[in-house]
Every structure is written in C-alpha cells, then in structure tokens.
Amino acid sequence: MAKIQLLDPRLANQIAAGEVVERPASVVKELVENSLDSGANRIDLEVEDGGVKLIRVRDNGSGIDKEDLPLALSRHATSKIRALPDLEAVASLGFRGEALASISSVSRLSLNSAVAEAESGWSARSEGRDMSAVLEPIAHPQGTTVEVRDLFFNTPARRKFLRTEKTEFSHLEEVVKRQALGRFDVGFSLCHNGRAIHSLKPATNQLEQERRLASVCGPAFMENALFIDRTAANLRLWGWVALPSFSRSQADLQHFFVNSRYIRDRLVAHAVRQAYQDVLYHGRHPAFVLYLEVDPANVDVNVHPTKHEVRFRDGRTVHDFIFRTLHQALADVRPSDQTNTAN
Ligand code: ADP
Ligand code: MG
Fold first, then answer.
1. ipTM of the assembly?
2. How many alpha carbons lie under 13 Å from residue 116 in its C-beta half-sphere?
3. How far apart are CA 191 and CA 56, in angstroms?
4. How many angstroms separate the CA atoms of 203 and 187, rounded?
5. Does CATH number 3.30.230.10 belong to domain 206-333?
6. Full-prediction pTM beyond 0.90?
7. Which CATH superfamily is domain 9-200 in?
8. Residue 38 near ligand 1, beta carbon < 6 Å
C-alpha cells in the first residue's frame, strides 16, 4: 500500500498558516494590506478580546467580483501578479495569494464584498476539509468586509501560544499604527470591545501628517522631531527623526518604510545607528519615522513570507544615502535645540 498521500487542502493551508498567522496582529496586517491593495481610502477595524474572538476589517476599495470570491479564499490565487517579471517589480503589498486561505483554515472567516454597480453584494465562507466556498447574496456597499472569528479554534497547539487579551491587543494596535504611518492618505479607525481607540482622518499635507504622527507616536516625539526630505539619483528619503535629546531606552519608536511597506532591515538599521553614533549615549536608541522611495525594480520584497525583510539591488548605495542624509541633518541641528530630555 502506498504511504505517500496528498494533504487535504485545509491541512495544507493550516501548515502554510504557520508561516504568516502567528497571532491576531498578523491577521490584521494581512487584511489591512489587502484593503490597501484594493485602493481603499478608508479602513475601519473592530476587534473583540484582543482580536481572538473577532477581527472585522471593512474597506471602501474595489470590492471582489462574485466569481472571484471562491478564488480569493484559495491558496496560490492572487489578482496581483501573473508572471515572474511582475514579481520582480511588485508594487502591491500582497502577491503570494496565501493570506486568506491560511487565515480561513484556522478561523471562522467570512468574506463579504461588493463591486461598483453590482446588483448585490456576496458573502463567501469556506467550509470543510476541501475548503470549498459557500456563496450567499448580501447587502453591502462597494468594498469588502472580512470577518475573522475564533482564531485558532481548530488548532489548539497554536491557540496555547496566545497571550493575554491586553498583550494581543497591544501587538494588534502596533500593527494598525504602523499601517497608519505607512499611508497618510488613508483614513483608519480602530475599535476594541466597542471602545473607539483610534480615529485617523486622511492626512493630505504636512501639518495633518504631523497631527497623525503626534497621535500615533505621542506629542513628545513630534515636538522633538526634525523633518527631513532629500533626493539623490533615484532615491528619496523623507520623514521625521528625533533629536538626539529625545533618545529612548528601547528601540520601540523606529518605523522605516520602503515604498510604503514597513520593513526591518539590518542594512538600514546599521546606517541609522551609524548616523546617530556620535550624538547618542551608549545604550540609547534613536526614534524615527522614515520613508525610503526606490524604484520597485531595485528592491526584492520576496525574501520572507511576512515581507518584513527586503533585499536592495545596490545595498551599499542605499546604506550610504541613508547614513549621509541623517548624519547631515543631525549635524545641522544647533546645540540649543538639544536641551529636552525624554525617557
Ligand atoms: P494576495 O494579497 O497575496 O493576493 P490574499 O490571500 O491576501 O493574497 O488575497 C487573495 C485575493 O483576494 C487578492 O489577490 C485580491 O484579489 C482579493 N482580495 C482580498 N482582500 C481584498 C479586499 N479587501 N479588497 C479587494 N480584493 C481583495
Ligand atoms: Mg494579501
């Protein structure tokens, strides 16, 4: 008798979910990225019990056609790339076609959506081991609402790793804040157990952006931050860096975006650390919210399933550009500007 068998689709998806769905915060990251990719300029989130009981993400983006709904829930199904060359200059946040399939295999997920001028909206759930989708007509404005209930209800081993409601919510909130910093042009709201936690209107000019920054990173950061904006060759670096006097005991206020995608990168971290080296005491960490714009063809985002890591085609140039820009900006600060203290 043959010993090798194909896994049923739900199990295969649950195994894949291990890579991207660690906790409620990872679900939120994937759902909000989908909303952003759909062109939404308004994203509303409601969560219960730190996201374990419920995560609901509603957007006003393109919506999904009825015919596409079952596919949206299937693994390796995406509308964002078709061929290898697309992957080499990918501009969307998603492209792996795995998030919804993974999340729906470890939760009770419903996908509700309507496209412009459709007679009705449609709701899809995937059920059973073969993950086949069940469709029902519903009333829905243009856009998409994804509801994820009872995360890890069928994978007790994963569920055991969840922390307290407070801890899970704080991870989730961190993800939303980061996404709100990544896209000033999009309005965000976040409710937890019926309580409004954040309500951020789209920010279209620097003043409004700084207001959002103060609300997300705290007014003290904003009061002690320098705005920078420098372009060289085909690189642009802009954003806010805290004065050395506003250093932190932890690296907890560091947000770096490459083409609106939040990343953690050793090369970038090194360039920033070097720029602050002469002006920060040992053991203190700089605070910054920075945006690097590069030609998508010069950066590979397909390094890791969560896409938090990237690879630059010309890492040396990127490193030196970041270092020089920040070093110069910090050198230009008059000593009298450096009198405040922070924690
Ligand atoms: P990926 O984002 O990598 O393509 P996902 O599993 O996250 O994979 O989503 C699958 C597909 O479902 C997407 O390619 C997109 O076409 C569609 N989709 C998911 N969420 C939304 C949304 N909020 N609005 C419009 N389309 C969506
Ligand atoms: Mg996605």
1. 0.99
2. 6
3. 10
4. 8
5. yes
6. yes
7. Histidine kinase-like ATPase, C-terminal domain (3.30.565.10)
8. yes
